[in-house]
Amino acid sequence: MTRPFRALPALCALLCALALAGCIDSSDPILSEAQPVFGPKLNLQFYSLSKDIATEPTHETFAWNGALYARSGGAREIEAFSAFSFEAGDYIIQSISAKDPRKTEYALLHKLAEGVYLARVIDEDDADEQTRASLCTKSDKFSCRIQTRDQLFAFARATAARQHQSGGLVIRLADAPEKPRRRKR
């Protein structure tokens, strides 16, 4: 069963409340040299998807800190994430959980329309048994521990190839206008 991705990521991060079996993770981030691919600030609305129904709205804001998008307000499911271009216009979201910052988790982000994305946890169960057996080390009873870019990409391709009825819907909202500063008298 896949877990809902509620933050950009996982995006991702998201932006992501990952609680069920099947996800992949690593003890350290696998992808490096992140760039602010979505600009300096993100104002995001997340929904869990189950059987094509969007529920459980969550709002999060993130700001680029020079290395990754760090949470600057909203729900606390994800501490920070980075996004990397992948195949077919998708992104891999590499997220740091607020609950366990020693664990890096991964999601796949697919653009549906301008500012609207489908986010899915990269799930070991999407890969065939041989791939899981050869690339996975169990870090606990729920997740598959990976160590290399090739392992990550193999699982990302498997997730991209599957049709899912669950995951997350991520909508990028306009940034709130800054309030004018009052002059001191």
Keywords:
185 residues; mainly beta; 8-stranded antiparallel beta barrel; 2 helices; 11% helix; disordered N terminus
Number of helices: 2
Oligomer: single chain
Termini, distance in Å? Answer: 60 Å
Q: What is the radius of gyration computed over CA atoms, rounded to a whole number of angstroms? A: 16 Å
User: How much helical structure, as a percent, in the residues?
Assistant: 10-25%
Task: Describe the largest sheet.
Answer: 8 strands, antiparallel, barrel
Strand order within the widest sheet? Answer: 2-3-4-5-6-7-8-11
Instruction: Report mean pLDDT, rounded to a whole number.
Output: 81
Series of H and E elements: EEEEEEEEHEEHE
SS-derived structural category: mainly beta
Identify low-pLDDT runs: 1-21
- Tell me how many strands there are: 11
Overall 3D geometry? globular
Q: Can you characterise this structure?
A:
The structure is a single chain. This protein has 185 residues and is mostly beta strands. The chain has one domain (24-173). The chain is 11% helix and 40% strand. It has helices spanning 129-135, 149-161, and strands at 24-26, 41-50, 53-64, 69-74, 78-85, 91-97, 104-113, 116-121, 137-138, 144-145, 166-173. The chain has an 8-stranded antiparallel β-barrel. The longest helix has 13 residues, at 149-161. It is globular and about 65 Å long. The termini are far apart. Mean pLDDT is 81; it is low at 1-21.
List the SSEs and their pairings.
Blueprint: E1 24-26, E2 41-50, E3 53-64, E4 69-74, E5 78-85, E6 91-97, E7 104-113, E8 116-121, H1 129-135, E9 137-138, E10 144-145, H2 149-161, E11 166-173
Parallel strand pairs: 1-10
Antiparallel strand pairs: 1-7, 2-3, 2-11, 3-4, 4-5, 5-6, 6-7, 7-8, 8-11, 9-10
